[in-house]
């Protein structure tokens, strides 16, 4: 029986120790500050990124890995692990060309190196939560078929809500209109944002103030998960104390069987800005 190896990209924001524990392969995206180029999580950490961002004259840009990068990763995995089945799970295709690069690489390799590429239709640890669940199965010896079945369940059962401290970054990166950003800032509105079924950012609800936003998110999670056993991931951009406080509240309200607190990395941070908090939740198997 062939072993299963899991590949993702750096936008999944999976903590490094968890990557190592579950043997998850991570292909980095790039961040560009003017003429300087950095690989997300490789030669630019989250803390270094936000420090540079604070002193930058303009918002940096980002770029996806090339098909060649994915092809190289798949070949190395295949040759080092006795011909494994590879499942490659990536950032929403509506937000990046990363999925497309991975897919092109898989088609180039053809039947010689079997790779199944999955569009998570999500971002940050909302990808990571899926990857971690499946990688846990793979490490325990699950088959490719069982892992892919679980991926389908996770795509149905995973929800993410996020709050940004400022709408500036989403507006400058084209995720919301300028008028909405200006109005939101003037009214101190804290939109609760989420992702559509297709993987695009949309405003789930508009509230005033972070406390009301958190209350509304918890209310919605209660509607969706009730007393289910859940895996909670909270990712943040320079908002660790707020993220820890929110994790405590999630534990008070729900049966949290697995929790992960993580940093929003440079690529996602470019688009949402410092102060952002994202909460990802999925059902765990009984």
Annotation keywords:
286 residues; alpha/beta; Rossmann fold; Hypothetical Protein Tm841, Chain: A,domain 3
Q: What would your notes on this structure say?
A:
The protein contains eleven helices and 13 strands. The protein has 286 residues and is an alpha/beta fold. It has two domains: 153 residues, Rossmann fold; 125 residues, Hypothetical Protein Tm841, Chain: A,domain 3, CATH 3.30.1180.10. The strands form three sheets. It has a six-stranded mixed β-sheet, with helices on both faces. A four-stranded parallel β-sheet has the order 2-1-6-7, with helices on both faces. The chain has a three-stranded antiparallel β-sheet with strand order 4-3-5, with helices on one face. β1, α1 and β2 form a beta-alpha-beta unit. The longest helix is centred in the C-terminal third of the chain and has 16 residues. The chain is globular and about 55 Å long. About 5% of the residues have low confidence.
Could you state the oligomeric state of the chains shown?
single chain
Which fold name fills CATH's third level, the topology of the largest domain? Answer: Rossmann fold
Low-confidence stretches: 175-187
Which structural class best describes the helix and strand composition? alpha/beta
Question: The biggest beta sheet, please?
Answer: 6 strands, mixed
Q: What CATH architecture of the largest domain do you see? A: 3-Layer(aba) Sandwich
> How helix-rich are the residues, as a percent range?
40-55%
- Beta-sheet strand percentage? 25-35%
Count of DSSP-assigned helices: 11
Element order: H for helix, E for strand: EHEEEHEHEHEHHEHHEEHEHEHE
Radius of gyration: 19 Å
Provide the CATH top-level class of the largest domain.
Alpha Beta
Q: What is the molecular shape?
A: globular
* Spatial separation of the terminal alpha carbons: 25 Å
Secondary structure: number of strands: 13
Spatially, the strands of the biggest sheet line up as 10-9-8-13-11-12
Mean of residue pLDDT?
90
């Amino acid at each position: 029986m062939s072993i299963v190896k899991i590949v993702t990209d750096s936008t999944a924001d999976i903590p490094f120790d968890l990557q190592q524990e579950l043997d998850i392969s991570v292909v980095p995206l790039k961040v560009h500050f003017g003429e300087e180029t950095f690989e997300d999580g490789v030669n630019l950490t989250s803390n270094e990124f936000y420090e540079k961002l604070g002193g930058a004259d303009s918002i940096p840009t980002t770029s996806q890995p090339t098909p060649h990068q994915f092809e190289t990763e798949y070949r190395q995995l295949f040759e080092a692990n006795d011909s494994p089945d590879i499942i490659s799970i990536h950032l929403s295709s509506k937000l990046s060309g990363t999925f497309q690069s991975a897919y092109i690489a898989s088609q180039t390799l053809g039947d010689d190196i079997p790779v199944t590429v999955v569009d998570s239709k999500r971002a940050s640890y909302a990808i990571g939560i899926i990857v971690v669940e499946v990688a846990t199965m793979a490490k325990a010896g699950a088959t490719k078929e069982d892992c892919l079945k679980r991926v389908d369940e996770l795509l149905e059962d995973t929800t993410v809500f996020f709050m940004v401290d400022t709408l500036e970054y989403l507006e400058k990166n084209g995720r919301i209109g300028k008028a909405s950003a200006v109005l939101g800032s003037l009214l101190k509105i804290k939109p609760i944002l989420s992702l559509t079924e297709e993987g695009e950012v949309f405003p789930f609800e508009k509230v005033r103030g972070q406390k009301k936003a958190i209350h509304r998110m918890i209310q919605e999670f209660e509607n969706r998960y009730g007393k289910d056993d859940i895996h909670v991931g909270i990712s943040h951009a320079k908002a660790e104390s707020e993220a820890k406080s929110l994790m405590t509240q999630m534990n008070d309200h729900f049966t949290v069987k697995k929790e992960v607190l993580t940093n929003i990395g440079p690529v996602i941070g470019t688009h949402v800005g410092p102060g952002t908090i994202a909460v990802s939740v999925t059902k765990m198997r009984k």
